[in-house]
TrEMBL record:
The keyword Metal-binding applies. The lineage of its organism: Eukaryota, Metazoa, Chordata, Craniata, Vertebrata. It comes from the Eukaryota. Its cofactor is Mg(2+). It is an enzyme of class 3 (hydrolase). GO terms for molecular function: inositol monophosphate 1-phosphatase activity; metal ion binding. One of its GO terms (biological process) is phosphatidylinositol phosphate biosynthetic process. SUPFAM superfamilies: Carbohydrate phosphatase. It catalyses: 1D-myo-inositol 2-phosphate + H2O = myo-inositol + phosphate; 1D-myo-inositol 1-phosphate + H2O = myo-inositol + phosphate; 1D-myo-inositol 6-phosphate + H2O = myo-inositol + phosphate; alpha-D-glucose 1-phosphate + H2O = D-glucose + phosphate. It comes from Collichthys lucidus. Keywords: Cytoplasm, Hydrolase, Lithium, Magnesium, Metal-binding. Signal peptide: none annotated. This is Inositol-1-monophosphatase. It is found in: Cytoplasm. Belongs to the inositol monophosphatase superfamily.
Amino acid sequence: MADPWQRAYDFAVEVARKAGEEVRKAGESEIKIMTKSSTVDLVTKTDERVEKIIIGSLKEEFGPDAHCFIGEESVAKGEACILTDKPTWIIDPVDGTTNFVHGFPFVAVSIAFAVNKELEFGVVYSCLEDKMYKARKGKGAFCNDEKIEVSDVTAINKSIIISEHGTDRSPEKVNKIFSTMQKILCIPVHGLRGSGTAATNMCLVATGAVEAFFEIGIHCWDIAAGAVIVKEAGGVLLDVDGGPFDLMSRRMVSANNEVIAKRIIKEIEIFPAVRDDAPVQKQ
Ligand SMILES: O=P(O)(O)OC[C@@]1(O)O[C@H](CO)[C@@H](O)[C@@H]1O
Ligand SMILES: [Mg+2]
């Protein structure tokens, strides 16, 4: 049977490339920085403009009401962040906005597509490196059209692990994050890393450059596309407590295999994160 979402998948790759070109160009001129949830949660006009370009292109191609959208900047402006059974695009126009404003060379456009709450495909365009990562459910994962696979390492002490520290700098959370990192570092692992973009971090798991990436505090738009890419590259996704991965929970361990994932999970100090789909508190 023909793949019902092939056209959408191919179009997502085109749109991600176009969006990434916009981000790349915008990085060459002066960037006006604004903030969102805290003084270190940065956003720029480029994030907003590129999200509009992506959603506008998808609506033009598939019809204005055919699909639903969850976009980082639309949610920041008050749109709902609820994943239903309807075909839904999950978009982060600039993953790694802090990197973007500083010229730190990892910035990604992340576009995923879910139907019946199941991720069908994901596209991550690491636009400064010009690397197009993509994966379609059941059809493997690719970087610039070359098949990619997770590493086959099962020894945690031969691994590189990625985590990030996020934009919530409350001392209790920062303490838990660094305490977890310290424990993992002292297992010891070969190294700890962080690119500053969850989407790119997941692609690094998918290519086998690192064994795992975990984080509490990420959003669905940071990881939806990467989740398909990791899985299709042969990796695993789990919750930070070892339970099943839940896209809206803001907690995730992605790894090359369950042995590595479960060894990391032993060390993770869990702290609360408000779900992406939690009802918005009225003031
Ligand atoms: O706002 P942005 O640039 O899309 O989010 C960037 C980001 O670094 O924030 C998360 C929280 O630490 C990351 O892992 C995520 O990818
Ligand atoms: Mg992001």
